[in-house]
Amino acid sequence: MKRIFLIVGARPNFVKAAPLYRSLVEAGFADVRIIHTGQHYDFNMSDIFFRDLDLPSPDVNLEVGSGSHGKQTGEMLIKLDDYFYRENPDLVVVFGDTNSTLAGALAAVKLGIKLAHVEAGARSFDLSMPEEINRILTDRVSDLLFVPDEYAEKNLLKEGIPAEKVFNVGNILMDALINNFSKIENLSTGVLEKFGVRPLGYGVVTIHRAHNVDDSRRLNQIIEILNQLSSKYDLIFPIHPRTLKRIRSFDVVLNNKIKLVDPLGYLEFVGLLMNAAFVLTDSGGVQTESYFLNVPCITLRENTEWLSTIDSGTNFLTGLDWRKIQSVLNELKDKGFRPNRKEIPYWDGKTSNRVASIIKDYLDQGGQN
To answer: From the centroid of its chain, how far is CA 257?
Structure first.
């Protein structure tokens, strides 16, 4: 039996790994292990996701913890290298664009272990983003590149990645949403009651990207935008620990009308998002989750790796332009805050099955493209 290691470490990794873990186990051709780097480690950022997504406890937790990008990635690499050397898997699978993704990729390729990247080819073309560096480097050394859309596929081909390594399988986050949708619907009423809001009567906020929160000028601009919006809309802000730390260190003042809450679990967050009038975010995952839910997404960045969601009509790239944000919200209000969404090919909840099938064929052929 083949041995496949799924590398996770942060909230987005857990959500993407869950459906693939299930598909691989059901396919029955491999011993599948979950390796947790420990990049995210407290309950609200890690354990609750395993519970919500019905993921088994990790086979290994490397307990790396927090630190600078270089320090964190380096410590992960050391520990993964040691573990891979001892256990010698047939395939390592990494997800998305976190430091855990890059560390898993480098540890595998240095030991000559085959590597698959789920959500390959996404590009913001902004090298100031640590996530962009992680994506590019991971893609360069991967043997199997599973892309979420046509934009990502074209990016890889332009970069010289051989076409036989690239597979357009769709967005695996849709699998997680569809697999858990009945549970999300069942708890959504309780979520509304918990936060004292009604359907379409509030906006959700998520901000965590280093580009936005580590720069005091940009963070102040974002908080000013939120403060102004809070005079018209109820805003619920599940705050990332990094963002809270920066708000405190920069002495930024949030309007007390904004409901600042601890990070939410997967089910509770999506339950909150599905009934929102809109979401303001800098998260890649939220841009795609809001597509599925047909909730307007105002992306507080100057670029995005998810152009397909803009084409679909659910995502609006505004940066920190207050006039543009106001214009988008006014237009959305006239439409009842529900866009006329266009479907994106292969975002149908079957991505994990496609990936598992391709992996099986690849390993059956001895790891040859």
So the answer is: 28
